[in-house]
Structure to design on (309 residues):
């Protein structure tokens, strides 16, 4: 997308991520509900196909791999595996409402991590946009919020590790001077290898319900299609965070959540209450406010550059 102007590249990246994310949510839902395909095993397939896709891309000259030490990528790979494991445990131990409410805390935790660890400052008006977004998520899920000690422990760990992972996705690209493809090219196989050791503790490997179980050809094709879409999702996530920020990506994630809810209502006839409708509206207003303030900041920065002698 190098031939497009900066704003055009960003819009294209967001659109790719939006379309791929919505597709993979509904496809994975079908795989879980209709086929009972194991969750962590599907994530392993996703990252294995992501690495194969990147290997093909570099073979075709789409990018040149940069030599990196495994220790430089290890924290990112570990945080990804922690994010997958703890979010799955959180989903298993909590209601959907509690899980979604905890997930909404990722954005403020990222703000705290970047402020304390990286010295990044956020204007008050940007921080205030988190209020309607969090309120919107609460309105969407409060009817299903139930707390337990174990569930809250997993939810808290999931939010912390997810926040670290997203911060490091952006920080490592700048620190190591690599682009999204170069970094993901190293992280994907490393995370896949780690998941190979983790999966047997949580899911069957062979037999009924295991990744090497007696799946039909149509099921295998759907899993592979899910992996191809996941390649687009993973690559666009790295690209968006590397070219914007983890907070901006999270804001976009809230937007995708609203679209997914509306899509579920329209496509699958999922019920949508008045409170959920208000929650979606509240979340979208917060996202619009954040977008307006960020665009204002960019215009202000451009004006200062032009005015310099």
């Amino acid at each position: 997308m190098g031939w497009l102007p900066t704003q055009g590249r960003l819009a294209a990246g967001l659109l790719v991520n939006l379309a791929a994310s919505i597709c993979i949510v509904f496809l994975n839902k079908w795989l879980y509900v209709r086929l009972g395909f194991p969750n962590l095993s599907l994530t392993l397939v996703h990252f294995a196909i992501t690495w194969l896709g990147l290997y093909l891309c570099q073979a075709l000259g789409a990018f040149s791999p940069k030599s990196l030490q495994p220790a430089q990528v290890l924290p990112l790979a570990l945080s990804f595996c922690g994010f997958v494991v703890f979010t799955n445990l959180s989903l298993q131990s909590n209601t959907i409402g509690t899980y979604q409410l905890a997930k909404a805390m990722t954005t403020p935790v990222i703000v705290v991590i970047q402020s304390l660890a990286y010295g990044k400052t956020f204007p008050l008006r940007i921080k205030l946009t988190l209020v309607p977004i969090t309120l919107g998520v609460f309105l969407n899920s409060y009817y299903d919020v139930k707390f337990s000690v174990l569930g809250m422990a997993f939810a808290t760990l999931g939010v912390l590790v997810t926040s670290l992972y997203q911060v490091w996705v952006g920080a490592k690209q700048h620190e190591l001077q690599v682009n999204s493809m170069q970094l993901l090219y190293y992280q994907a196989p490393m995370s896949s290898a780690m998941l190979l050791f983790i999966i047997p503790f949580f899911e069957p490997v062979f037999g009924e319900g295991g990744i090497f179980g007696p799946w039909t050809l149509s099921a295998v094709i759907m899993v592979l299609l899910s992996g191809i879409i996941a390649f687009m999702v993973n690559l666009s996530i790295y690209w968006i965070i590397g070219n914007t920020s983890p907070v901006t990506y999270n804001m976009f994630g809230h937007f995708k959540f609203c679209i997914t809810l509306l899509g579920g209502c329209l496509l699958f006839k999922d019920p949508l209450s008045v409170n959920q409708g208000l929650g979606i509206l509240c979340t979208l207003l917060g996202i619009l406010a954040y977008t307006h303030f960020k665009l204002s900041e960019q215009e202000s920065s451009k004006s200062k550059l032009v005015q310099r002698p």
